[in-house]
Specification:
By secondary structure, this protein is mainly α. The chain is built from three helices and no strands. The chain is elongated and about 75 Å long.
Length: 85
């Protein structure tokens, strides 16, 4: 049904309710992820490094290689690496 301003109220309500449900699910999933990281930390793993590994696994090999090359270039320019081999 449309109200006088032309908005389909039922459709709008359905979208809002779907978004709200998904936001709730996102919160639950986020809490689950935090629990897994806490468990890993409790077993002696470095959470910062685990997050980095997860981030790297999302990328294609060529993307990782490109980032590493640029990082090496920047570190070298700042004198933060050892002598060139």
């Amino acid at each position: 049904m449309s109200d006088p301003s032309g908005i389909a109220a039922d459709q709008l309500r359905a979208f809002i309710e779907r978004i709200e449900r998904l936001e709730e699910e996102k919160t639950v999933i986020s809490d689950d992820i935090k629990d897994v990281y806490a468990e890993a930390k409790g077993n002696g793993y470095d959470v910062k490094i685990l997050r980095k590994v997860v981030s790297l696994r999302k990328k294609q090999p060529h993307e990782r290689e490109e980032e590493e090359a640029v990082l090496d270039l920047y570190l070298h320019a700042l004198g933060m690496t050892g002598p060139a081999e």
